[in-house]
């Protein structure tokens, strides 16, 4: 009973040439697919490992059509792809992730409304459009609260924490980007995330839950398995599976959540693509999030991910490159990944390291002792 799937040598088009596109491309190349990537940067991280790169902006309609006519299937590595442009190419090429998922995940207001409609627990919030609105609605939300732009934010950009009334003034510039979400601050004990995959045949598979630490709103470390109780773990898997089904997902989706002291889970954000907190899957699981994503979009059956060994993943930002380069010769267990970015900039994600271990606390301590991430 074989279902239709794309055969090796078919071409996968990727919108976005960053590290996620690169790791998708590496997985797809291993399976024998051809890759064409669209990105405005010449010799982009994904372009370096692809068969071809179209150098153009993500909303360049003509370039996107060019990508669509040369590809058998098109995927994207980030959610800020131009909606209309994607809808346009959907008429000429198979885009398994579709446009609906994109429209929901690129707008926090729609995303929150969608999560509520699925009966999924989220932080109390209100949509605000001007200063008066903030002053009024914060009465219901209370301090501290977070003001977030509805569109375009990532890694904590487009956010402002309001601790008291006098903070409102400084947060107002965010309204220039349009409507915002005013959200209650959840006093979480842990942040976790889970990657789920679904294919067109309706098969759903989840990856182990990862426990994440952010520094300055940027992911710093992921530890797997997350140290949460069994109920929390089961609930996280159930939420991810439910969303994959409701959204008719084809590809992978990451779900970020907060866990409070009492064990309550709050979904914070969805990412309709492989996720930084799932990089550990490359070495630690029986299948990586990238290979699973490619299998889903080419119409192959999914594998059930198994954790082969607990793992710690740490990001290498621009300011860590020098330290990592000096130290890596002394750490045989470091799986060092670099993304081929030419320009080293502070806070820019340049690579990551995964370490497989039976003692994740000891590894975190070892990483601390290197002082690279101080
Ligand atoms: P986001 O861009 O929504 O993923 O937020 C970036 C980071 O800000 C999260 O990973 C949290 O550490 C923090 N954060 C965002 N929203 C909240 C919230 N409602 N309560 C507490 N912390 C938050």
Give a verbal description of the structure.
It catalyses: 5-amino-1-(5-phospho-beta-D-ribosyl)imidazole + hydrogencarbonate + ATP = 5-carboxyamino-1-(5-phospho-D-ribosyl)imidazole + ADP + phosphate + 2 H(+). Its EC number is 6.3.4.18. It comes from Listeria aquatica FSL S10-1188. Keywords: ATP-binding, Ligase, Lyase, Nucleotide-binding, Purine biosynthesis. InterPro entries: ATP-grasp, ATP-grasp_carboxylate-amine, ATP_grasp_subdomain_1, PreATP-grasp_dom_sf, PurK, PurK_C, PurT/PurK_preATP-grasp, Rudment_hybrid_motif. This protein is an alpha+beta fold and about 375 residues long. The protein folds into three domains: about 10-95, Rossmann fold; about 125-185, ATP-grasp fold, A domain (Dna Ligase, domain 1); about 190-370, ATP-grasp fold, B domain (D-amino Acid Aminotransferase, Chain A, domain 1). It is about 30% helix and about 25% strand. The chain contains twelve helices and 17 strands. The strands form three sheets. Strands 9, 10, 11, 12, 13, 14, 15, 16 and 17 form a nine-stranded antiparallel β-sheet that branches. Helix 1 crosses helix 10 (about 290-300) and helix 2 (about 60-70) packs parallel to helix 3 (about 85-90). About 45% of the residues are buried. Adenosine monophosphate binds next to strand 14.
